[in-house]
Amino acid sequence: VQLQASGGGLVQPGGSLRLSCAASGSIFSINFMDWYCQAPGKQRELVATITSDGSTNYADSVKGRFTISRDNAKNTVYLQMNSLKPEDTAVYYCNVVDSDCDDYWGQGTLVTVSS
Questions:
Q1: What is the pLDDT, as a whole number, of residue 29?
Q2: Is the dihedral of CA 18, 37, 6, 58 positive or negative?
Q3: CB within 8 A of 55, min separation 6: which ones?
Q4: Closest by alpha carbon to 81, among 3, 11, 31?
Q5: 31: region left, alpha or beta (phi > 0 left; psi from -120 to 50 alpha)
Q6: What is the mean pLDDT of the chain?
Q7: pLDDT of 27 strictly over 80
Q8: Quick check: 63 and 82 in contact, CB under 8 A?
Q9: How far apart are CA 90 and CA 108, in angstroms?
Q10: What pLDDT sits at residue 3?
Q11: Is the pLDDT higher at 20 or at 28?
């Protein structure tokens, strides 16, 4: 199973970005799709998660600004990031957990929020 993340880049404070992550390979059924972030010198932390039935959960720091969504037909998860702040600067990783509780990680995409 491979996860290909894209959409990161440099954006000014207050701007928006949309991250995408597509899963491919021998993956039968996906349960959870998540986004994590890891800022320099910090531990990786959960940003948002979405279940197979569309239920979502967010870290307090991004509630009201980020939206996670998924396209089950394409095995793709998205993260719409609005009102970005400098403290959102991090490498963002997608994570997928399948029905066998095996999890897979994407390669990470860098988001830099700076003027």
A1: 82
A2: negative
A3: none
A4: 11
A5: alpha
A6: 94
A7: no
A8: no
A9: 10
A10: 92
A11: 20
Fill in the amino acid letter for 19. Answer: L
Mean pLDDT of 85-98: 95
Cα gap 17→110, rounded to integer Å: 11
3-class SS at 49? Answer: strand
Find out whether 3 and 104 touch, Cβ atoms under 8 Å: yes
Q: Are 81 and 68 in contact (CB under 8 A)?
A: no
CA 21 – CA 76 distance, rounded (Å): 5
> Tokens representing 28?
């039968």
Q: How confident is the model at residue 1 (pLDDT cuts 50, 70, 90)?
A: confident
CA dist., res. 115 & res. 106, Å (int):
28
| Separation of alpha carbons 115 and 112, rounded Å | 10
Tokens of 47: 């940003």
| H or E element in which residue 10 lies | strand 9-11
Model confidence at 14, in pLDDT bands (50, 70, 90)? very high
